[in-house]
Every structure is written in C-alpha cells, then in structure tokens.
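ERR on first pass: missing label on line 2. Operator R.T. fixed the label and resubmitted. Corrected input:
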Amino acid sequence: MLRVENLRKVYKNRKKNVTETVEAVKDVSFECSPGEIFGLLGPNGAGKTTTLRCISTLIKPTSGNVYIDQHNVLDDEKAIRSRIGFLTSDMKLDGFFTPDYMMDYFGALNKMSKKDIQLRKEYLFNELQMTDFIQKKIDKLSTGMKQKTAIAISLIHDPEVIIFDEPTNGLDVITSKSVTDFLSKYAKEGKTIVISTHIMHVAEKLCDRFGILVEGELKELGSLKNILERNSSDDLEDVFFGYILPGTEGEVNHV
Amino acid sequence: MFSDSIIILKKELRRIFTDRRMVAMLVLLPLLMLPVMYSVMAKMGASRDSDITSFRSTICIYEGVGNEDFMGPFIEAFSTINTDLEIIQSSEIDSVKLAITEKEKELLLVMPDHFHESLAGCSTFDIAVYFNSTADYSQHAYSRMSEVMDSLNGDIVRERILERDLSEEILTVFTINEVPLQYDLAKEGSVIGKIISILLPFFIIIYLFVNSMKVGLDTVAGEKERGTLAVILVNQVSRLSIVIGKMISVMIAAIVGAASSVIGLIIGSRYFMGMFGSSGAAISSYSMSSLHVLQFAIVLIPLAVLVASMVLIVSTFARNTKEGNGMIMPVYFVVMIMGMATMQTGDVAPRWMLSTPIINSLLVLKEIFMRSASWNSIVTAFLSSIIFAAILIYLTLRMFSSEKILFRI
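pass 2 clean. output:
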C-alpha cells in the first residue's frame, strides 16, 4: 500500500546572490492499493518526476509524508528501497553488458542469493519474452528490448511497489502493448504500481485510477469514470487539455 | 558494506578489463606506442644527424686588406671540414649575409685588415663569423668551424711557446682525475637511479592521472548521463559502498595503465636515454630490491587512491562525461605542474614541497629510485595521500547526498 500525504517539494536556486524558489510539487496526496495501477498524468514540468523521485527516496520532500506500508521515506529509506522497483524512461543501460549479467548485478545489489536471482531471471525473461536476447550485448538490442531489460532489472527483487516514470515512452506499438500487458498482469499479482505518463490512451487502458498534475498541483484524482463524469466529458484527453490550456483554472476534484 | 563495494568493484572491473577497446587503450596502446614512438623519433633523429654531417656547406671568406699571403694556415685548417670555400670581396659581404639569412649559404668569415701584424706581434685580433642559428646546416658548420679555429689557436700558441724554449706544460697548471680510479662514490645503482628519478615520478603521476581519467569520468558522470545512477541509488546499497567500489576500480585501472605505460617507457628508453649520458641498456638493467619495491608500493598505492578520488569527485560533480572532461583539465594541468616541479628540485626540497600532497609522494619516489628514501618521509607521504584521499571521498559522499548535484535540479 502506497500513501502520499500532502507532499510538497520546493527547489531553491541561488543565482547572483538571489535565491529563486520553485515549488515543483504542491500539497499532493493520493493512495495506491495492492493490485491497483495508479497513473500520474501531466505535461512536461508538471512535477510527475519529482513526485516519483520523492516516493523512491531519491530526493527528500520539503514537507509531507510518503508511506509504503507503515514505512516513511523520511526516516526509513532502507525499508522503502527494499520494497520498491524504480524505472525512468530516460535510463540507458551500459551497452557493454548483457541483460543476463545486468540482472545478476542488480540482484546482487539487492542482496539476493544466486539461486533466487536465477529463479527470478527465469520468471521475468519468460514473462517479458526476453529469452532470445539475454546473452546479447545491450548495445545490439532494439529500443523495445532495452526497455524490457530495464523493466526486468527494476523488478529483479520482486518489489511490492513499482514506480515507473514514462514506461512506454519512445516504444513502438507492439513493444508498448507487451509492456502494458505485463504491467496489468503484474498488478493482478497484488503489486502496487504507479506510473507517470503523458500518453493518454496508454493511461486509459492501463490505469485503474488517475491523478492529473499541472504545475505541481493535483487537479484531478479518481477513476476514469469519475473524472469523465465530473468534467462532463467522454475523453480523458479533453479533460487533460482542459487543464493545461492557458487560463484554465481548476479545483482539486476528489472522489 | 564491503560486500556491496565488491559487487560494484567487480562490475566496474569487468566493464574495464573485458572491453577489448578499453584494454587496448589502457594497456596495449601505451605498451606498444611508447617504444614505437621513441624508436621512430630516434631513427628520425639519427637520419637528420647523418644528413647534417654529410652536407657539404659553403663557407665564404673575406680575407681583409693586406692578408693574402697569411691565409694559408686558415685555409688548410678549413679544408678538414666538409666544405666549399669561396673567397669574396668586401663589396659582396652584405649579399653573402643575406644569403646566410635565406639559408642559401652557411657561413661567412670576415678577417680583420692586416691581421698578420697582430699575429707577428702576439696580440689578439678578432675574426667575425656570421651564421644562421635557425638553419641546421649553418649551425653545424659554425660548430665545426669553432672547433677547427680553437685547434688552430692552440697550435699557434704552442709554436710561440716552443720558439721561446719553453715547455708545453706551461699551458696546463693541473689535471683532474687523470689516474684511472673509481672517483664517483655514489651507492651502487644510484647513478642510473638518479637519471630514472628525474623522469619517472613525473611520468608515473601523469600516467596515473590520465588512466584515471580514461575510466573514472564515466564511472559516475556516465551513470548520471545514462540515468542508471538513480536505479543503483534506489537499491539497498549504501552510497559509501558505491563510492568505495568505484574508487577502487578507478585506482586499479590507473595502476594497471600506468604500469603498462612505464614498461613501454622503459622499453622505449633504449632509444632516447642517450641524451642523459647513460646508455639505454644500462637504464633497462636497473633493478630494485624487494625492500625498494615494498617502499615503492607503500607510496604509489595511496597516491593512486588520491588521484582516483580526485577524478571521482569531478565525475560526481559533473552532469555528464563531456562536462567532466572540461572540468578535469584544470586539475590535470595542476597535477602536471606539480610533477614538473619535482623534476627541478635539488637534493633538499623546500619545506612546502614536503608538506604538499602528490609532490611529497613524487619526491619520495625519487628518493626510492636513488635508494636513499627514509622511512620517515615514506610514512609522511603515505599519510598525506591517505588523509587527502579520505577528505575527497568524504566530499564525494556529501555530493552523493546532494539532490542538486546528483540530479542537477
């Protein structure tokens, strides 16, 4: 169970003796239960990546809390890290290694035994249909194969909570479908999944609940049906554009 | 913690030493390049010397007024040089000078008018010899001419002494070390060690730094650039383990690369060490006792740790490897200047040098090569490198905790 409570992140930049303050995430709260996929939607610069980095312990919130089960990111980073799998779309794995070696490496970093790593590799390689290229150097793989490798690496330690920043970004239709199918199946196994995306049709198909983040503020929160009803719309993309077009004001609509 | 560092270290070493291109760049290239480079340089130098000495230069002579019958000994002396002599008139002096400037002729001698009177009266007269120091042939002809003139000068002086029924020995008050004995009381092997100590510590620090740069900049800045650092950081491995693992891998690569470069340098020394007055074979035969090897390792390993830590802190601070390359260059220049400074020190280095990290280690390496290092200075160099490396590792760790530096927000 993931619970984000009043999360706020302020960046301070000092330029020529003037401190510039940017509030990247403003009082964001949401929950994601086991078996659920939560989609954090928003344009570039909306605060999606910052929110996911706070959840992943990579950066510290200015205020607010993030809980995974009963563990808080502020004082129990180690417990949080053992429970999460994190992936960013801009990750480019070192092309010199093979997917098989990278799985061994990240498994070891997660303090897994060789036997557990082997079992987990077999499961993930089969599920993600990777067996044909696990011994090839990552440099020689297609974008889709690389993304599958990155996903497998982030799931090597069988995390309870999965945080994926733009998991289908830059993928072709077939690979994108295989990734979304895998995530759906994975959620059904009781995993908690949070993804960020700006591709609406991926979000609609994959996510059970959504949060629309604009300029750090959570403008919408709820299921697809709830959001569409509340905005009297039949298209999530229209709702999304309604928030990001200039001059649009909106209150946070909770269900 | 150390088991995590070993996991990181193994991966980094695998990255470095199973990549053919990296191995070629780090190990094979310096091993082969330096001997090939120095042998080509030596061959080209020999070929150039042979060309210069075999060249037949043109020497123009203005005999001066009233000297026609007294030029014999000079002309005879010049004939021993590989040269064509041209007797010119005073009106041609300026055009010959221009020809020497334009590298068309090599030398011009202008004899003073009536020099025979000075010769007969045993008074000194001056001969003007014009040459072009930027022209190899002219410079060589000038050197040969000076030798011949010195010899002629000596012959004339000896004739004058004999004419006065005096012994030639009047010209020599005393000699030094004419009796064949062992006059140099330096420790055995330390003479070659002195030659090695001038160059090798400088090359060692340069090779350590360059090889650290080859692998070290990518190790954190590259991971940042590829986005993989974030994935490592959300694993259950401590930041200290990451820094230590990466630092040791950079250090090992630097030592292996530097060793390869130094071996290449020693092989290449056969071709270029002649300039230090010792044959290349003698340099190659230089050996160190197990005690000196131990002393060498005690100084070198902490120095490599310090260098690796310097590269790692820059790699951690930089956004990407490109930025890291730009940032490391000023540091590289400072290290290079430190290395050069140690080449110029005498037997007793200034106090500030002994208390400056890197420089003090290089000075101790020099002493080890000359077999005169004291344990006191070895321990000082060891502690200095370790303390400064620890400070840099601490600062790198602080950077690993900084969101601003890791994610450049």
